[in-house]
Amino acid sequence: MAKEKKSNQLSNKYGASMEKIVSLAKRRGFVYPSSEIYGGLSATWDYGPLGVELKKNIQEIWWREMTRLQDNIVGLDAAIMMHPKTWEASGHVENFSDPLVDCKQCKTRFREDKLSAEVIASKKCPECGGELTEPRQFNLMFSTHLGPVADSGSIVYLRPETAQGIFVNFKNVVDTSRVQIPFGIAQIGKAFRNEITTKNFIFRTCEFEQMEMQFFVKPGTDDKWFEYWKEQRMNYYVNQLGVLPENLHFHQHGPDELAHYAKDAYDVEYHYPFGWEEQEGIHNRTDFDLGRHGEYCGKEINYLDPQTNERYIPYVIETSAGLTRSVLVCLMDAYHEETIGEDKQGKPDVRTVLHLHPNVAPIKAAVLPLVKKDGLADLAKDIQKELNLEFNTFYDQSGAIGRRYRRQDEVGTPFCITVDYDSKDNHDVTIRFRDSMEQIRVPREGLAARLKDEMKKYKRV
């Protein structure tokens, strides 16, 4: 087989502009603009064949880490629409709003808290210099009507977060699951926020998915558990999703940033092309949520310690991550362009590759017959069927083998399995590694187990 040219000299750093990620996502089937045939709908996106696999992989990794590998965390799937008093108790009706200003001249809309002090003082539009309106509060919750008549008594909200479904089910979980404090309740689901400004692709959208875990602890132990979950969640991004540690850091909320319910709060921030921004929040919510829901429903929500007979309202340590935002982090962090030699015209041969951790890669292995004749295609199909029992694979027999490798590099497939004429006689195949482009010969028998071993010992280059 022809060997690929290799170079240790990289043409640029890891990462990519947003334009390159958007182009790759559309071209390779990760993310499409929603309703595109009708001109699209602002800030809404559809996840294509590779995007849905990437998203499901991240979701399954998070669920495994937060529930199956934990003895004291259980799962929940609460309804999207909840009783309206839920959002009064949580503070969302009163506090979940942004200050909004408009330019009287160009009609551009801004969040006042995102404008500079100079712009606010001058009341001049940063786009055209026109006069800005006075700020007004804009509630971020979507409202709709439940029932046959649309009136004030039928208003419900699409949940702006999944956490409240956990809090209102606290007693149900305690009574039915035999859990004891400290314990957590985890949930993955859609949330909706009528954002004033939606930008940067899938970073900020009106419809998104959250992965939240609320961990209930005895008051006085909350600081210890807060530090514990900070460490666990940072390690998750590096060890499970393969994000480069230099692209992550903690940001502590200052007094002016703290939410109304929080005693302390840190964000895991990722270094996007547009700056450091939140990927996950770790919050000490104290006893605010259970206390407020008890007040509003008229039934005290507390916990009876079976060891001490002490009754108290638990404190809550929250970990709240964006699933759809995690997709963007994985794509951006993995994207790389590297020069691996020259093409036939003497120009730099640039390889585009996604260095996705095998845990999250949409396709774990591509099976490629060297040619599609002489029984190699049939043999390759048989191998693919065997591998499909263990993980998602892809079959490709179209074009030169080098081009097929490059296509798989661009979508982050960690392994290519090449079937050639020797495979018919010797019952072995070639594994080609995405990151190093190294090729090794291995027996066909036990191929799935070999690939699993390679995935376990994977290290980000």
TrEMBL record:
Its EC number is 6.1.1.14. Substrate binds at residues 111, 161, 208-212, 318-322. The keyword Nucleotide-binding applies. Coiled coil: none annotated. InterPro entries: aa-tRNA-synt_IIb (IPR002314), aa-tRNA-synth_II (IPR006195), aa-tRNA-synth_II/BPL/LPL (IPR045864), Anticodon-bd (IPR004154), Anticodon-bd_dom_sf (IPR036621), Gly-tRNA_synthase/POLG2 (IPR027031), Gly_tRNA_ligase_bac (IPR022961), GlyRS-like_core (IPR033731). The keyword Disulfide bond does not apply. One of its GO terms (cellular component) is cytoplasm. Residues 19-369 form the Aminoacyl-transfer RNA synthetases class-II family profile domain. PANTHER family: DNA POLYMERASE SUBUNIT GAMMA-2, MITOCHONDRIAL, GLYCYL-TRNA SYNTHETASE/DNA POLYMERASE SUBUNIT GAMMA-2. Catalyzes the attachment of glycine to tRNA(Gly). This is Glycine--tRNA ligase. It comes from Oceanispirochaeta crateris. The gene is glyQS.
